[in-house]
Amino acid sequence: MALVKFLVSMAGRIAQIAIGVGLIGLGEGVGEVLFKVIGLFFVVFGAFDFCVIAPLYKLPTSGKLIRERLK
């Protein structure tokens, strides 16, 4: 549950975007497409406030709804 709280926080979203940009930058050479796709995944979900692991905790996928529920 702590991981979900972090991922929907502003710091978590910034971290996701930074990790995604880093992976896209690393995507040179072997497996470049895989790194870029995974990096894009992180950037998009961080930017649009979407948490893909939240359903494992029976929470909605929207970051805004998660923050409201966990107050």
Notes on the protein architecture:
- The chain is an all-alpha fold.
- The protein has one domain (2-69).
- The chain is built from four helices and no strands.
- The protein has helices spanning 2-8, 10-26, 32-47, 63-69.
- The longest helix is centred in the first third of the chain and has 17 residues, at 10-26.
- The two termini are 13 Å apart.
Using brief descriptors, characterize the structure shown.
single chain; 71 residues; mainly alpha; 4 helices; 0% strand
Briefly summarize what is shown.
With 71 residues, the protein is mainly alpha-helical. The protein is built from four helices and no strands. The protein has one domain.
Number of contiguous helices:
4
Helix content: 55-70%
Give the CA-CA distance, first to last residue.
13 Å
User: What is the structural class?
Assistant: mainly alpha
Q: Could you give the order of the helices and strands?
A: HHHH
Largest sheet: none
What is the C-alpha radius of gyration, as a whole number of Å?
13 Å
Ranges where pLDDT stays below 50 over 5 or more residues in a row are: none
Please state the overall shape, judged from the principal axes of the Cα atoms.
Answer: elongated
Amount of beta strand: under 5%
Domain count: the total is: 1
What's the total count of β strands?
0
Calculate the mean pLDDT score and round it: 92
